[in-house]
Amino acid sequence: ETGVTQSPTHLIKTRGQQVTLRCSSQSGHNTVSWYQQALGQGPQFIFQYYREEENGRGNFPPRFSGLQFPNYSSELNVNALELDDSALYLCASSPGGLRADTQYFGPGTRLTVL
Amino acid sequence: SQELEQSPQSLIVQEGKNLTINCTSSKTLYGLYWYKQKYGEGLIFLMMLQKGGEEKSHEKITAKLDEKKQQSSLHITASQPSHAGIYLCGADQGNTGKLIFGQGTTLQVKP
Do B104 and A90 lie within an 8 Å CB cutoff? Predict the structure, then answer.
């Protein structure tokens, strides 16, 4: 157990809808990163938040947006869902540096877009 | 942009056998991370390598980073069913904590 939780566990949406995924970081962690993992692929970096500010973004369109709150929990929002958005969404929190060895991953949210 | 290629993509071994998974980078690695993932679950951190020639072990799993820092290998000795899962290598892009990953290697261990 890493102390990072994500909700919901599973979600089914239809094309064109909007979705919000949530991540609760491990206590004391002020950095959160979000990844998208399509079936049979490695995770792809979406974006990272550090102390409530976006701190880097991968190759994802603007309809993928995020927020980090003062308690360092985080949300990933996806608008205008497409079939290709079906994936496992992972968040990872870090305690204060940006080194990956201290990233702790949550169990993920499985999103299915019909 | 940097890319990571893992081989093999999948592996089936008999319990007790040794195995090796490779990860090759298109650019010099500044930090190479190995994770294990059970299907549909989060990633479990195994090891991090930073220096060329570095080797680390945890229980029956050993990882190495070659001298030129463009390839890493993960070796499992005397495999057990508990080793089954997806093994992912990840690289830290510029020491920022933003990881890129290989496509993963799926390991099955037959009892």
Answer: no
The shortest CB-CB distance from A56 to any of B40, B98, B103 is to B98
Size of interface A-B (CB pairs under 8 A): 76
- Which residues in chain B have Cβ-Cβ distances shorter than 8 Å to A99? 31, 92, 95, 97
Please tell me the number of Cα atoms within 13 Å of B12 on its side-chain side. Answer: 2
DSSP A26: P
A25's CB contacts (< 8 A; 6+ apart) are A4, A32, A72, A73, A74, A91, A93
Report yes or no: A4 at the B interface, CB cutoff 8 Å.
Answer: yes
Arithmetic mean of pLDDT, B70-77:
96
Report how far residue B49's alpha carbon sits from residue B37's, in angstroms, rounded to the nearest whole number.
Answer: 19
Contact B99 A31 (CB under 8 A): no
Over residues B74-110, the pLDDT tens digits come to 999 999 999 999 999 999 876 667 889 999 999 999 9
